[in-house]
Design a protein that fits this description.
With 108 residues, the chain is an alpha+beta fold. The chain has one domain: YaeB-like fold (2-Layer Sandwich). The chain contains 3 helices and 6 strands; from the N terminus they run αβααβββββ. The longest helix has 13 residues, at 10-22. The N and C termini lie far apart (34 Å).
């Protein structure tokens, strides 16, 4: 298991976010903004979880408002997204085994 502290490079972030999302004890939260975006796009929480478990991080992270945690953009397709790709901004916390979803958008 990687013990590298954040910020993570994109490949490490992909692995770590997938690991957290696949943990049955993972804490999961969506901001009100993210919930509104899901509703607008006719997506559900299982779409978010699918992308977190199967998607990729391609870009370097940005600092979050919580010291030591960073925002990552995770991209992927979900069962309800058709041929379109989703991009989500998330804040993972490996120590707490939690992921906070900040927003959800279409990549295009």
């Amino acid at each position: 298991m990687s013990q590298q502290s954040q910020p993570w490079r994109p490949a490490v972030a992909t692995t770590e976010i997938r690991r957290i999302a696949r943990d049955p004890t993972c804490g999961f939260a969506c901001t009100e903004h993210a919930r509104e975006r899901l509703n607008e796009r006719s997506l559900i929480i299982s779409d978010v979880l699918f992308v977190l478990r199967q998607g990729y991080v391609y870009a370097d992270p940005e600092p979050s408002t919580v010291s030591g945690l960073f925002k990552y953009k995770v991209e992927g397709q979900s069962p309800n997204s058709g041929a379109r790709f989703l991009r989500m901004v998330v804040i993972p916390d490996r120590r707490a085994s939690e992921i906070k979803v900040v927003t959800v958008m279409w990549r295009d």
